[in-house]
């Protein structure tokens, strides 16, 4: 063969690439992961086996308990009857029916049912308000205007009142800003800041109530005839509506009584068959063991085995096909009773709302009718009110007149008192308010503790050490009991507001130390760089120091927020009905006495969802702000 032909026959350059090969199974995939993470050493193998056994032991009891559950029942005894009828005589599964009946109460407390849309809207608007802060790189900055307005809109939606109250509160910021400008020109920034804070607080404490009462009087005088006409017309329609609802409620109650009889009649043969099977099985077991249960002494182990035999026999008897007809009748009756009782509860709720509306309307019409006489009485008492009794009578009449004008002049939302707040909604209000307010206050305290000004430094240190050195429950009792002793006589400081203030102060002390740790972690060169750029203290902190310190402090800050949110359950000790307090109230009722796990599992799930969400956002924020790889 010639040299040229040999070169054509042997080619050392491949014309086509080989297809990509799958990596060896031992070097990738789940087998590699299991080998490296679970079976990498004898100790890991032992720990893996133990962990799998523990997981199996937990899930083998938890999964049947969760899925073999009852959702349609009106009491714990009715749940047990359903378990017995379906053959789960060993106690059955979970009785989730308590959530169907009381789940709404665990979330909203005693907030009026016809006003649930207000906390729902407040909760939705909260996410709209915080979205431009949490996701500033994805949303337009114009949304921050709504973020600034939300703290004034939220209390109005929850507590109600006239629409001009939030406007008057916002006006306090304008007053504070004007006072800051004037004070800064006269005595510098420190005097301006103090003047702004003082004038804003004075406006909120004195000007807002006075202006609010005056506006109510003006609007009330303009709407007297309209209010009287509308109230009279409403009273005329309330009577027939109440009569119709009461008639419907009585009709449904009669149907419930009939269905209760059907349920009891269907349950009787099931209960009888189960008891006979249980007793027969236990006697047969004792006979096999050669023991007479009436005369011989039976040990606990033998008795437990006998009860297990009885339970197995009872479960088999309950599932006997001969009882299918009565079992189906019983379960259908339970389902029908649940629907009818829910309907009765809904009708009763509507009746209570209408009865309350009727009594309030009648009282308003009576107060309007007596308003001229009471105004004359106020003038007479003002001239002769010299004794404590006369002064007290004058204040009482003035309160009634003021309340009448408030009802006539209110243009806005129906007021809701703080005592009607409860459940998980209460925990959200306290927790979110404390989180939002404690962060800026904690940053100021951290800066104050590092300040070179003697007074600011010592005040910040004293505040932080005092707040941190006393348990939160003590501060809550202080807010409930002792704070009234330091308030002017006759002042009515809402308990929920006092709790929010105490929780905010408590959390701010911990936030201050977390932020101070972030400030201490910064190199001295960062401060020197700010000085080299010619920045003053405020700009150096805002533009250079605090952004880096807060980034370092994110895990500690979020950890404090999570602890604060969980600590809201402590308000149960001062009489506020948070989810734990409501669960105690539910368990103390005769219908649900003895139920535990279902309520606490539901409450724990709600708190876990919120805390887990905060933790995940913290992790994503840390990754987004991470600059070490650039």
UniProtKB/TrEMBL annotation:
Transmembrane domains' residue ranges: 45-67, 82-99, 120-136, 156-179, 186-206, 424-447, 459-483, 495-515, 549-575, 595-617
Domain ABC transmembrane type-1: 424-618
Biased segments, Basic and acidic residues type: 302-311
Family statement drawn from the similarity comment of this UniProt entry: Belongs to the binding-protein-dependent transport system permease family. HisMQ subfamily.
PANTHER family with a match to the protein in the record: INNER MEMBRANE AMINO-ACID ABC TRANSPORTER PERMEASE PROTEIN YHDY, MEMBRANE COMPONENT OF AMINO ACID ABC TRANSPORTER
Source organism (scientific name): Roseisalinus antarcticus
GO aspect biological process, one term: amino acid transport
Region named Disordered: 291-319
Protein name: Inner membrane amino-acid ABC transporter permease protein YhdY
UniProt-listed Gene3D superfamilies: MetI-like (1.10.3720.10)
Gene: yhdY
Topology in the lipid bilayer: Multi-pass membrane protein
Cross-referenced InterPro entries: AA_ABC_transptr_permease_3TM, ArtM/GltK/GlnP/TcyL/YhdX-like, MetI-like, MetI-like_sf
Pfam families: BPD_transp_1
GO molecular function, one term: transmembrane transporter activity
Keyword terms: Cell membrane, Membrane, Transmembrane, Transmembrane helix, Transport
One GO location term (cellular component): ATP-binding cassette (ABC) transporter complex
Localization in the cell: Cell inner membrane; Cell membrane
């Amino acid at each position: 063969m010639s040299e040229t032909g040999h070169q054509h026959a042997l080619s050392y350059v491949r014309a086509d690439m080989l297809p990509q090969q799958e990596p060896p199974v031992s070097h990738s995939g789940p087998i590699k992961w299991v080998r490296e993470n679970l079976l990498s050493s004898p100790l890991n193998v032992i720990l893996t086996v133990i962990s799998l056994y523990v997981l199996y032991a937990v899930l083998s009891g938890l999964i049947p308990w969760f899925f073999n559950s009852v959702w349609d029942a009106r009491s714990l005894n009715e749940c047990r009857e359903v378990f017995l009828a379906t053959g789960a005589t060993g106690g059955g599964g979970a009785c989730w029916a308590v959530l169907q009946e009381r789940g709404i109460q665990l979330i909203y407390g005693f907030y009026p049912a016809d006003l649930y849309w207000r906390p729902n809207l407040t909760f939705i608007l909260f996410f709209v308000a915080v979205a431009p802060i949490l996701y500033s790189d994805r949303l337009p900055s114009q949304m921050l205007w709504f973020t600034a307005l939300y703290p004034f809109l939220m209390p109005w939606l929850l507590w109600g009142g006239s629409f001009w109250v939030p406007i008057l509160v916002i006006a306090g910021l304008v007053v504070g800003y004007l006072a800051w400008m004037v004070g800064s020109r006269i005595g510098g920034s420190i005097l301006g800041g103090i003047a702004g804070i003082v004038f804003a607080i004075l406006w909120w404490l004195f000007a807002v109530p006075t202006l609010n009462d005056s506006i109510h009087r003006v609007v009330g005088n303009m709407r007297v005839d309209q209010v009287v006409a509308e109230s009279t017309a409403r009273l005329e329609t309330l009577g027939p509506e109440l009569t119709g609802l009461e008639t419907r409620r009585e009709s449904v109650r009669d149907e419930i009584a009939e269905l209760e009889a059907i349920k009891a009649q269907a349950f009787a043969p099931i209960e009888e068959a189960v008891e006979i099977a249980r007793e027969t099985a236990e006697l047969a077991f004792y006979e096999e063991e050669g023991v007479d249960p009436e005369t011989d002494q039976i040990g606990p182990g033998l008795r437990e085995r006998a009860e297990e035999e009885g339970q197995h026999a009872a479960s088999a008897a309950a599932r006997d096909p001969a009882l299918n007809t009565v079992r189906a009748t019983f379960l259908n009756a339970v389902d029908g009773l649940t629907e009818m009782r829910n309907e009765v509860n809904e009708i009763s709720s509507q009746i209570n709302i209408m009865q309350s509306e009727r009594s309030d309307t009648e009282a308003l019409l009576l107060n309007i009718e007596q308003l001229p006489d009471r105004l004359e009485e106020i003038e007479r008492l003002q001239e002769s009110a010299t004794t404590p009794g006369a002064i007290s009578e004058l204040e009482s009449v003035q309160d009634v007149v003021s309340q009448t004008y408030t009802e006539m002049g209110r243009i806005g939302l129906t007021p809701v008192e703080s005592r009607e707040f409860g459940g998980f909604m209460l925990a959200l209000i306290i927790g979110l308010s404390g989180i939002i307010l404690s962060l800026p206050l904690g940053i100021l305290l951290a800066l104050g503790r590092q300040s070179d000004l003697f007074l600011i430094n010592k005040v910040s240190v004293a505040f932080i050490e005092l707040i941190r050195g006393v348990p939160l429950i003590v501060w809550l009792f202080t807010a409930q009991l002792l704070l009234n002793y330091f308030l002017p006589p006759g002042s009515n400081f809402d308990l929920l507001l006092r709790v929010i203030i105490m929780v905010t102060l408590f959390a701010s002390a911990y936030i201050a130390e977390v932020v101070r740790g972030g400030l201490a972690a910064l190199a001295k060169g960062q401060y020197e760089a700010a000085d080299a750029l010619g920045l003053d203290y405020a700009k150096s902190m805002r533009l250079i120091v605090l952004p880096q310190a807060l980034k370092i402090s994110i895990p500690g800050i979020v950890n404090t927020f999570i602890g604060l949110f969980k600590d809201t359950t402590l308000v149960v000790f001062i009489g506020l009905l948070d989810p734990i307090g409501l669960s105690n109230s539910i368990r103390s009722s005769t219908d649900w006495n003895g139920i535990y796990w279902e309520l606490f599992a539901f409450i724990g799930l709600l708190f876990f969802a919120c805390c887990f969400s905060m933790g995940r956002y913290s992790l994503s924020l840390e990754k987004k702000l991470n600059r070490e790889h650039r």
